[in-house]
User: What shape does this take?
Amino acid sequence: MLEGKKIIVGVTGSIAAYKAAYLTRELSRHGATVRVTMTDAATRFVAPLTFASLSKHPVALSMYPEHEASGSWHIDWALWGDAMVIAPASASTIAKLANGISDSALTVIATALRGDLFVAPAMDVDMYHYPALKKNLATLRSFGIKIIPPGTGELASGLSGEGRLAEPDEIVEVLRTHYARRTSLRGTKVLITAGPTREAIDPVRYISNHSSGKMGYALAEEARDRGAEVTLVTGPTSLEIPAGVRVVKVTTAEEMASAVDVYREEIDVMIAAAAVADFTPAHVASMKMKRREMSEDEMSIPLVPTRDILKSVGATKRTNQIVVGFALETRNLVKSAREKLIEKGCDLVVANPAGEEGVGFGEEENRITLVEVAGETELPVMTKRECAVAILDVVDRMRQEKKFIEEKKSDLNVGGDETGMKN
Ligand code: CTP
Assistant: This one.
């Protein structure tokens, strides 16, 4: 998976710098072309010559190297790299990246990089738990930078705890998985519903909810980045339309249902992330309702149920289609999600708690539990993009399982009798 990939290894000042030498060698061994940049502090731990020899390329050490004629050599590096992995990443380099400070070859390249940036922190346990570090890591995550968490164990200081650089083999595996994901939905048609719906009461008023659409949009972007052909049916949101995605804008639950009807036959995966209104006013007043013209017995709005889009797609899905629903619950999270899984014919229900501070509706992060027939997986608080990665990993796994079963079935039928057994 790393064949032909151009990867920049960034080494910062940490005793774990010696592990970056092994990482450089392993990345090359897996087919990547590697270049290395080091901070000044890193050169105190390992000689640049080690990395120059392993990567077969001069190491970028200074902002103003004598051998570089061009003033924009660092931009050339940044454009060259498909990915950059900073391992070990010290607390100060993490702080610089979180604040956009580019005062060394390494930080200049990292901030100018167009490819994917991976950061593998390494430091002493107390530094790792320093509040600013946590905040800076969260900031990097919110930028879409991938954090490779440190391990727990004995540290160079003699203390024990979190802060050990992830093992080079683990880092290589993270990169390999990352690139495997990049093609995992190639040729797959994915339909995603997102955002709220608005149900008109009169020409100026409507019933809606607090959905921001962020989760559905993150899913659309992640599916697109995995090579899928994505259709995003979205209710009104203030989000930027993702590039490379077919977007169908709707307002009401009925419009969303009709838009889904257009694509439901042809799709391989449907993810219902929209917060669809369950009820809509039975009649829409043609004129604005006036307070002074309303008597007390008119102070109620009769409602009728909307079409349940997810349930209807789930009820008619083909065996090779995958249907994913969401369940936003204030209580009995997993139990309610499991009921929806069965009732709405889903392969997966993403359960998320309502009313929890900092996560869910309108927030940047979410805390999801993935509920399947076979069991559930509770995940920690993550950015919505990270949640999208986890959800699509399950979808990908389910698609492979279905494909495997189909292949086995057709193997059994080849030259078989009516029982499907081979002769
Ligand atoms: N959904 C849908 N169409 C609707 C209502 C909901 O496609 N008319 C989808 C949502 O996109 C979500 C899932 O169904 O994926 C769960 O929605 P929710 O409103 O929580 O479930 P309900 O079945 O309405 O149950 P309840 O409100 O009682 O929890």
